[in-house]
Amino acid sequence: MGIPLVIALYIFVLAIFVGFEVITKVPPTLHTPLMSGANAISGITIIGAMVVVGPRDANLAVALGFTALVLATINVVGGFMVTDRMLQMFRRRPGEGA
Amino acid sequence: MAVFEGINLVIQYVYLASAVLFIFGIKLLGSPATARRGNFLAALGMFIAIVATLVNEEVLNYEMIAIGIAIGAVIGAVLARTIKMTAMPQMVAIFNGVGGGASAVIAVSEFVRIWDGDISVEGHVKLTIMLGVLIGFVTLTGSLIAFAKLQDLMTTRPVTYPLQNIVSGLMFLAIVGMIVYLVGFEFNIYVFYALVALSLILGIQLVIPIGGADMPVVISLLNSYSGVAAAAAGFALGNLALIVSGALVGAAGLILTNIMTKAMNRSLANVVFGAFGAVTAGGPVAVETRTARSVGAEDAAVMLAYARSVIFVPGYGLAVAQAQHQVRELADLLEGKGVRVKYAIHPVAGRMPGHMNVLLAEANVPYDELYDLDEINDDFRNTDVAVVIGANDVTNPAARDQPDSPVYGMPILNVDQAQHVIVLKRSMSPGFAGIDNDLFFKDNTRMLFGDARRSVTSLVSEVKGL
């Protein structure tokens, strides 16, 4: 998949600006869940790892891709689950359901 | 230009949809009421990106992918389910580390593929592979050190040696040199190995001089790195989904780092260039001649129960003693007696940004009773009693009015302006800045010595007895 570098850079820079806009609106109360949620999103490398593992021939690159796949999955699954666990606890009033 | 065709074009549209879900997910994190839905949307975005990738023409090795995902999912789920909320900073550090590690290993794997196949690639692909290796491995080992410090597996104090910053600088220059050589001149596998090794060491080198109290900054900075590493992997693989998500995470980490450094009155440059170890070293501690007044639980309970308004100021000491449930019980009792209760949260209270809020949320403290620095600072002067629990430097008035103090300029909670202040603390020992807190010697301050959990427990029983 060859995308021209300049397009990729455009997208990268614009995504940073979008990120700044939405993230600055997150209140301090939610900074820890924001961080662990963002962290889970960085586990998107999982799809990179899947592509690298892709070829059927076992070689060093595929073995490395497999390692990356396991690591990225820990990041994704653990990150989203732990964020959900934290967010479940935030309640407006005691006694109200989550 | 037909870059994407057929099935690959469809995959790109799905990636676009998942990027939109990530952005909406973060947007919904803007309020505690919608945050859980936001997290779910982001997870959904990840899920559809994974499913779309499975139909990629290059992906054939389904057994291996299934096994890898199964192993990772079990490990991640067990960690996420069993971790204590007080240990959340370590957990995030570990997830950061494995995320950065994954990006780095992908970059290595790309290098190996190009090397083995003797494939010629464009300069920017080579460059992003090298950057992915550098940033990813620094994130990995740096996060592991942060984990070790937070988990008390190694000293939480700064580990320093002479010329440390110069060594870091030289290592960094060597790394830049290697990257220039690998990208501009020759793809040499030995230089590449050296780059991997030096990047791993640099991560350790950058985090060991940082003390436990500075961990909020380190964790958010490493979080930012893990995003940048993911984006670098995206450039190397030509994958837009990685580039967009990496940029989002990189921005999130940078913003939080900026908030943390402001809350500690440091500059971002000061943090990025690794000078933090030096800043925490205060001057020689002057011999204290003033005396602080102590108070017993009984008298403190009377002060609280007959107050009209009370502000709790929880700090790191509370987290260590895990006294959040007792504090919440005390607050409930006081509210039952008609006392107006609020909680004042300093941005660097706890060990990562917003950590204190999570701990209080775990103890069922309603989030609309939690106020951050700007919201509550004007309220202290109209408050009868401020209760400081294990927060030290963030309440030191010297930050406001003593220009020669090491903490001068750091935004603090104006606890000293309350009618009365009760400080719960083990001893008179100074906080991480290594200086005395003038607050303890003020006329309106009383010290309640002892372990925070035990002190609050006795306050609870005293208030019940009134």
Can you describe this structure?
The complex is a heterodimer of chains A (98) and B (466). Chain A has helices spanning 5-23, 31-42, 45-53, 60-89. Chain A is an all-alpha fold and 98 residues long. The N and C termini of chain A lie far apart (44 Å). Chain B has 466 residues and is of the alpha/beta class. In chain B, helix 5 (123-150) runs antiparallel to helix 6, helix 5 runs antiparallel to helix 8 (215-237) and helix 6 (164-184) packs antiparallel against helix 7. Residues 275-285 of chain B have low confidence and may be disordered.
Q: Key terms for this structure?
A:
heterodimer; A: 98 residues; mainly alpha; B: 6-stranded parallel sheet
Topology, pairings included?
The complex is a heterodimer of chains A (98) and B (466).
Chain A (H helix, E strand, L loop, with lengths): L4 H19 L7 H12 L2 H9 L6 H30 L9
Helix pairs in contact in A: 2-4, 3-4
Chain B lengths: L5 H23 L6 H20 L7 H21 L5 H30 L5 H28 L13 H21 L4 H19 L7 H23 L2 H24 L4 H5 L3 H4 L17 H9 L3 E6 L1 H6 L2 H13 L3 E6 L9 H8 L7 E3 H4 L8 E5 L8 H4 L18 E6 L19 E5 L2 H14 L1
Parallel strand pairs in B: 1-2, 1-4, 2-3, 4-5, 5-6
Helix pairs in contact in B: 1-2, 1-9, 4-5, 4-8, 5-6, 5-7, 5-8, 6-7, 8-9, 12-18, 14-18
State Rg of chain B: 25 Å
Low-confidence segments of chain B, given as residue ranges, are: 275-285
- Describe the largest sheet of chain B: 6 strands, parallel
The most extensive contact between chains is: A-B, 85 and 115 residues
Specify the helix fraction band of chain A: over 70%
Seen as an oligomer or otherwise, the chain set is heterodimer
SS element count, helices of chain A: 4
Tell me the total number of β-strands of chain B: 6
